[in-house]
Design goal:
Helix 9 crosses helix 13. The two termini are about 20 Å apart. This protein has 2 domains: about 140 residues, no CATH class; about 220 residues, no CATH class. It has about 375 residues and is mostly helical. Keywords: Signal.
């Protein structure tokens, strides 16, 4: 019988419910992986699969709208407590409940419901469509960037709009987080951000800028970055989930042929909303978990990007040029180059492999331990397990 690592055991039975505030900052999961490798060894530290986590946490693991389990209290183990202590800051300690909330958030198990997952106070007035606004806030996209991406791509190209919006938002955050004198050395181009925001039309966005932005985004999606605060002061999503949530925001601006899949309160309409998997009806994105939204994103990415046949006429010329740099993106994949393997990118195995790569680069774990973690993900994404 596969042993239950201490974190999953206490996470599955500690009482927790969706709160009106997002989780606190701090990269709890990466620190926890480091602590558990140090205490238990790499093989045991990553003994659980993505499916094990989801069964432990979610009420209905196959539903895109599943809630989170509740249970009775359990005392966390030493590795968990040490990880919590490591990510706590003076005056703002992370609690056990906060650590669980952070893990659920980072692994894509939460939604984008106003007043539950997203504070209503965080919603900018420019988002008159509150469903689109809630997903945009969770993706951390500021209104000026969001609506500029929309103007450049059109609401029918939500996958393209999302990739450019997250790329530009990422560039802005990197510029804001580094001294101006370091921008050149770090390859950060403020002129590209300025041109994007000032553009009066598609013709004003040079080819170089588009390729630069997609290369920047591809780098973000290839690594693990979690626990920071977005422009809205709430916890950021990992990049792959962030792009998917942004795509949901753009999609919700367009009409739905068979009616709105969400009720007015943001819950899904069972007779209209899709159930994920083979059910191709549209999701109620705000009531769906980030994992479910990502699965939807992968499907639409294949349709809008991978399978797209450029028409070559003037009506689609610019959107074809916007898509061009996206064709060479890995979209966060490990191992396989095939875009048809993108569905694995939101799995715990891949997230942990990216964490291990960073821990190795930081000198916190041995190369052999990092290899154990990454090999598990590579076997999965290359289709060998």
């Amino acid at each position: 019988m596969k042993p239950w690592p201490r974190f999953v055991l206490f996470a599955s039975v500690l009482p927790f419910t969706a709160t009106a505030a997002p989780p606190p900052p701090g990269d709890f999961l990466k620190v926890l992986l480091h602590e558990r490798i140090s205490v238990e060894g790499a093989h045991l530290a990553v003994a659980l699969s993505d499916d094990d986590y989801i069964r432990a946490w979610m009420i209905d693991p196959v539903s895109p709208y599943s809630g989170i389990k509740e249970g009775s209290r359990y005392t966390p183990g030493a590795a968990v407590l040490q990880a919590i202590a490591s990510v706590s800051v003076p005056g703002h300690p992370m609690s056990v409940e906060g650590a669980i909330d952070a893990a659920l958030w980072d692994y894509g198990s939460t939604k984008a419901r106003l007043n539950d997952d997203i504070p209503l106070s965080a919603l900018p007035s420019r988002f008159t469509n509150v469903f689109a606004g809630a997903s945009a806030v969770k993706a951390g996209i500021e209104p000026d960037i969001f609506f500029k991406a929309l103007a450049l791509t059109g609401e029918e190209n939500h996958i393209v709009a999302a990739n450019y919006a997250v790329a530009v938002q990422t560039l802005k955050e990197l510029l804001d987080g580094a001294p101006a004198e370091r921008h050149f050395a770090l390859g950060l181009r403020k002129d590209i951000l300025t041109r994007f925001l000032d553009t009066n039309g598609p013709q004003d966005l040079p080819d170089y800028d588009r390729f630069y932005l997609m290369r920047l985004l591809d780098g973000e999606m290839s690594r693990w970055k979690a626990g920071g605060l977005s422009a809205y002061g709430i916890r950021e999503l990992p990049a792959v989930l962030r792009v998917a949530r942004a795509a949901a925001a753009f999609r919700d601006l367009a009409p739905y042929d068979n009616g709105q899949p969400c009720n007015a309160d943001g819950t899904f309409r069972s007779y209209i909303a899709g159930g994920g998997g083979a059910d191709l009806r549209p999701l109620c994105h705000v009531d769906a978990t980030d994992r479910a939204v990502y699965a939807w994103y992968v499907r639409d990415y294949r349709e809008q990007i991978v399978s797209r046949e450029p028409k070559g006429d003037s009506s689609t010329l610019f959107i074809d040029r916007m898509i061009g740099p996206m064709l060479n993106m890995r979209q966060g994949r490990l191992g396989s180059l095939s875009p048809h393997m993108s569905g694995f990118t939101s799995r715990v195995e891949v997230f942990e492999a990216k964490m291990a790569k960073q821990l190795l680069a930081e000198g916190k774990i041995a190369a052999l331990d990092a290899e154990v973690v990454s090999d598990r993900a590579l076997r999965l994404t290359c289709g060998r397990i």
